[in-house]
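quick one before i forget lol
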Amino acid sequence: MNQPVTDAEIPNRGPRITPADIEANIISEHYFTAAQGVDMADPEMTDAKMPQALKLLTFCVLVLRNGFTVTGESACAAPENFDAEIGRRIARQAAVAKIWPLMGYELRTRLADDRVAADLFSNI
């Protein structure tokens, strides 16, 4: 009952957003840790003064076709569990999850606009 729904299970009866649509909408992706961000923002911060927690927090910034950006993040509780690649993947998944409602809203707006236009021209 608690198994994730796959894209193949979703009925294809009308317009919808697909994982391929999401990926096609991403024009670039960027990753950094909070420590790297602080290092760039505060050149006087030494490694000795850098809080360990900032080294465990990974950010992903996705730039979309229209120039909008979405972010995702990933943090681990224990330094020995930190894996940069896994952190990037989790942060990217979190960012992608934010794209779904944005593209869904855009699709719904287009469908509503098409319906209004069809109603306007049906009386002519």
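fyi Residues 19-97 form one domain.
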